[in-house]
Amino acid sequence: MASSIRPTLSLFNPSPRLSFSHFSTVVPQSKSFALKACRMFRKNGNSVRVMASGNVSSSLTASSPENVLEWVKQDKRRMLHVVYRVGDLDRTIKFYTECLGMKLLRKRDIPEEKYTNAFLGYGPEDSHFVIELTYNYGVEKYDIGTGFGHFGIAVDDIIKTVELIRVKGGKISREPGPVKGGKTVIAFIEDPDGYKFELLERGPTPEPLCQVMLRVGDLNRSIEFYEKAFGMELLRTRDNPENKYTIAMLGYGPEDKTTVLELTYNYGVTEYDKGNAYAQIAIGTDDVYKTAEAIKLSTGKVTREPGPLPGINTKITACLDPDGWKTLIMGASLYMG
């Protein structure tokens, strides 16, 4: 855990544009995302019609708060990707592919907006949780802050993985060994930008990119928000009074088969500096309109009202959780009436 906690800062963007996933209105970038998103989830029974005037209507208008929150539990959701910024895209791609075994799925340069991003992971975007790296022209360093924790990666042989990372010049911040009070063998490493990765030794898993850890100021409040607004299931909690922290694992499936969100509460710490490096998680939904309503009913703040992106049919909404962590919600169906 971070030893020093600085005052919370707003997420600063040193470049005018980051990417579609940062709510840019760049249409060319959005189109490729929309095509992939449409294959991620099936259309549900709630119709949304785009009127000639451009206004969007939805069956949501007739829904009660109780119905909306109940619908969230039935929505077919999946964690899609996590977005963060790096100072040297090629260097990071090389580290992730050679040391962590990821594959470069695609790379996209937007010179008119002065950024490039790359998608990496352990399988196709339409079935796996992936990483979206963003490089803003001329920006070589970002502040990770004290709020972001780490990413988790499941590996078959942790000793072999750590030694490979060491040979490649990676930083080992915790040598392999059993977790305190448990049997799982873990290690911690850092990538070239200082992002921490927890390596967990596990057997074969369909989703090696298995965790995103964020620190929060009120664990119960955060659990309630992610359950109500995003329909996540609380998988387990673990209190560690010796080290003065408590964690909660939430997600859409078992920890050994899907990516989960790990929330950490450090005793007595209510605010964190989020820096300007980590951006957000993206989640897929069948209905961005109902999702936005659920967010409003769950102490979240909608920062981008639900609706279609200009020029394409993919619909999105965006929000902040009670601690100010950003989430992008993407609809996968065309919803055209």
UniProtKB/TrEMBL annotation:
Reaction catalysis annotation: (R)-S-lactoylglutathione = methylglyoxal + glutathione
Task: Tell me the active site.
Answer: E198
Mind telling me what this protein is named?
Lactoylglutathione lyase
Instruction: Report the pathway entry.
Output: Secondary metabolite metabolism; methylglyoxal degradation; (R)-lactate from methylglyoxal: step 1/2
Q: Which organism is it from?
A: Pisum sativum
- Which Pfam families does this one have? Glyoxalase
Q: Which NCBIfam families match?
A: glyox_I (TIGR00068)
GO MF terms on file?
lactoylglutathione lyase activity; metal ion binding
Which Gene Ontology BP annotations are present? methylglyoxal catabolic process to D-lactate via S-lactoyl-glutathione
Domain (VOC): give its ranges: 78-202, 208-332
Q: Does the keyword Metal-binding apply?
A: yes
Keyword annotations for this protein, in alphabetical order, are: Lyase, Metal-binding, Repeat, Zinc
CC annotations in GO: cytoplasm
What is the recorded function of this protein according to its Swiss-Prot or TrEMBL entry? Catalyzes the conversion of hemimercaptal, formed from methylglyoxal and glutathione, to S-lactoylglutathione.
